[in-house]
Write a structure and sequence with these properties.
Layout lengths: L4 H20 L5 H9 L7 E7 L4 E5 L12 H12 L6 E7 L2 E6 L7 H13 L4 E2 L3 E4 L33 E8 L2 E7 L6 E4 L2 E3 L6 H7 L3 E3 L4 E4 L2 E3 L5 E5 L4 H15 L3 E2 L3 E3 L7 E7 L3 H11 L2 H16 L5 H14 L23 H13 L3 H6 L23 E8 L2 E9 L5 E9 L7 H12 L21
Parallel strand pairs: 4-6, 5-15, 6-16, 9-12, 10-13
Antiparallel strand pairs: 1-2, 1-20, 3-4, 3-17, 7-8, 7-14, 11-12, 18-19, 19-20
Helix pairs in contact: 2-12, 3-7, 3-8, 8-9
Length: about 475
Amino acid sequence: MIRMMPALFKTFPLLLALTSVFALGADLPRPVRQALGAAGIPQSSAHVVVQEVGGRTSLSVNARAAVNPASVMKLVTTYAALELLGPAYRWKTEAYVDGDDLVLRGYGDPKLDYESFWMLLRNLRGRGLRDIRGDLVLDRSYFGPVANGRVDNDVFRPYNVDPDALLVNFKSLRFVFIPENGGVRVFAEPSPPGLELLNALKMGEGSCPEGRAFRELIQASFQSAPPRAAFTGLYPAECGERDLNVALHSPEDYIAGMMRLLWAEMGGSWAGVVREGSASLAAQLVYTHESPPLAEVVRDINKFSNNVMARQLYLTLAAEMGGVPANPEHARHSVQQWLELKRIHAPELVIDNGSGLSRIERASASTIAALLQSAWRSRVMPEFVASLPVAAMDGTMRKRLIGEPVAGNAHIKTGLLQDARSIAGYVLDRHGRRHVVVMIVNHPRAGESQEAVDALLAWVYNGSRGRAGPRAGPPGGGPPGP
């Protein structure tokens, strides 16, 4: 016993320090607790991890519980895709002439938007194609059937659009509202043939609301067959120019409308119909359109939390890693194998569609923190970090923390569902140290937790170092990170 005492005394300071870490980590910082309390949210509903990059844990509260991470789940999908597919990966869309028919074969391009589809058709015209005597045949077989991914009953909202191997412009219309001569001009972009637009808006006074409240104020109503949009309410002058994105059409009808509109503008003719199918063995490949590189697509997904693009990317992982036709189970298996290779233990992880727009997806704050630590050491770190919104500057963080010291010093992915709000990313504190920060709130009043979340970011920036004991090396040994 006497021989053991020196060893015990040698390790006692470290044991005391570690006890201090976890004792202080048991409670949230006071500003965060106060903000949660003001919102009526108990501390037990907050799940938080703060760690120096490559180093110690400053704060760990309810970190291992499986919770709904909302759009923070996109970090799993985008980081996995950058590593498994590579930042330079590009999607393709092929155009074949098959007798009198034109066949378009899609491979899940998430960014086959209005301009890209115009360029695809423009290239066909440049190659001499003008009169299409047959049908427009859509080959969407790269993706298999997917379950309906709607999280609410608003079928016309673009975030509820399902993945499609040949998804053009998110099958959405952008309605633009412009105050003009005491009235309101409204137009749709694009404006496919057959769209009926009723504008009975009147200029009014008052503040200009956001989201659903704006749609209710202008009494927006829609129908798909035949496509119709009506606006009959008041339009506050304070709104200025606004726009509203709506998904009215089926994928087939949308492509048909876009084709008739753009092909005619290019001097071409087409009198056939749109139908499902594939190219025959005798078909001639005329043109292959390529998407922007994955690094650029990932930036759009994370900066603006684009759910449809994330789901397209998730199924692309399934097709590339598990085979065609892609299905979500292939993607889940591929991501799980990749996490194991990265030595990220995540037994609680449940991935539904990879976007976070789901009621069943689950992750813990500790798993998301481990993912961010791994990403910082990865060869794709520059592309991954650059995809995250910068506080007070761009993306979903553009209007948050403006004028605060942490502005410009935090790369943060946000998430928001009815009962969940989340953030995850990196904060460079005022001492020049970088931290991984994760906070997930699951509660019926989670939407009111933004002040608490922002208070955590401010606390980290102001220097949490030293509040939770001495610095410890990363798990598994090795020197502390920068």
